[in-house]
Design brief:
Blueprint: H1 10-17, H2 20-35, E1 38-39, H3 47-51, E2 59-63, H4 88-101, H5 112-115, E3 119-123, E4 128-129, H6 141-155, E5 160-164, H7 166-169, E6 181-185, H8 190-193, H9 203-213
Length: about 220
Amino acid sequence: MNIAIHKSWQPYLKEEFSKPYFLDLMRFVETEYKNTICYPPKDQIFNAFNYCHFDDVKVVILGQDPYHGEGQANGLCFSVNDGVAHPPSLKNIFKELETNLDIPYPESGNLMRWANQGVLLLNATLTVRAHEAGSHQKKGWETFTDTVIKTISDKKENIVFLLWGGYAKKKIKLIDVEKHEVFTSGHPSPLSANRGYWFGNKHFYYTNTHLDKSGLDRIIW
């Protein structure tokens, strides 16, 4: 399978591409895409890296699994293609944006505009079988994306990590909290958000405040 990942990431990840687990993973993904419907489209699997280059990373948002409905997933966590109805978690992200930064609820759920500003929108698992949530978990993707998180932590400074929900919070063990800023909260999914674990976390404000202190451009959310 062709690994279409931007050249800025190659020096840091190329060793992974030849490891047995990754070769097994690519064979699995190739077979899955050949025999069943999977998301995102094959040429968008590595979009998180292709729209946010290594040198540009300022913020990392972690998701768990791509959307598994038709036409939704585009390779960026929590993001959907233009014109696609906003899933519940994304609606709650945008509602928090509205109240946190007093900006209008966005029309498009495509978060490419965030990625282009240095927000790495990384799912722990980069592929999924249609209508089968979690179907590509524990096949090797998590090993790869854990390496990505640790590499960013090791090689960069002053990154903001936004860890939403129990699964993402576990990734803190991969992050050097002495040199990076980590904000945690409940997940934006309705179950968590409606229990009071999401709304009011002010993560978007805190992120931009940290970027200001670091002398970096704010994210235009």
